[in-house]
Amino acid sequence: MDSGQEYTIGEACKLIEKNLQKNTYKINFTGGDPLVQSEAVLEMAKFVKTKKIPTYLESSCYDSNRFSQVLPYFDYIKIEFKTPESEFVDSKHYSKLLENELQCLELAVNSKKPTYIKVVINSKTRLEPFKKLLGKIFTNISKSKIAGFIIQPSYGIAEPSLKQLLSFYDVVYPYYNEVRIIPQLHKFIGAP
């Protein structure tokens, strides 16, 4: 089922401008995955930059080429690493997804932009593959180059227990001690 409203890039930029407030401190590009519409995101991010407002990209980074094209127009980056159990892609394509995510992480930190890592955890997420994911992340990137590490529990279906979340926290902590568990607040307040 389709949802949402379709806009031209010009209409979307007008909506952004119309809704800016004095205290607007950044514009987030997230939801679904912004890289799906990377050309539109690029144009809107360019527009936001003309307003002198910082831009923030949150993406699963499934395509490092698209990511490298939009990267210059973003001030903050959050890369959502997928676990094998996330079912974002099938097991046959997971290694290619992880390769792209790691390339995007390297591009982001080399651009010297504050870069955050996020991993969504659900009740199906297993510790051993998660540990392997952490090993790959922190083999490639020094923890000093990361601005934050977020564990985000899924909400509703397959919601993890507190015990599971704390187990994942304990696994991340030796790699990166500024790890945070942050729920999907938009789900709690009923936002789409």
What does this structure look like?
It is a single chain. A 6-stranded parallel sheet has the order 1-2-3-4-5-6, with helices on one face. It is globular and about 45 Å long. Helix content is about 40%, strand content about 15%. The two termini are about 15 Å apart. Strand 4, helix 5 and strand 5 form a beta-alpha-beta unit. It has 7 helices and 6 strands. The protein has about 190 residues and is of the alpha/beta class. Helix 2 packs parallel to helix 3 and helix 5 runs parallel beside helix 6. The chain has a domain of about 130 residues: Aldolase class I (TIM Barrel, Alpha-Beta Barrel).
Please give the structural blueprint.
Elements: H1 9-19, E1 27-29, H2 38-50, E2 55-59, H3 64-70, E3 76-81, H4 91-110, E4 115-121, H5 127-140, E5 148-153, H6 162-172, E6 179-181, H7 185-188
Parallel strand pairs: 1-2, 2-3, 3-4, 4-5, 5-6
Helix pairs in contact: 1-2, 2-3, 5-6
Please outline what is shown here.
The chain is an alpha/beta fold.
Give the name of the CATH superfamily of the domain at 57-182. Answer: Aldolase class I
Return Rg in Å.
17 Å
Shape, per Cα inertia axes: globular
What gap, in angstroms, lies between the N and C termini? 14 Å
Structure class? alpha/beta
Descriptive tags:
192 residues, alpha/beta, TIM Barrel, 6-stranded parallel β-sheet, 7 helices
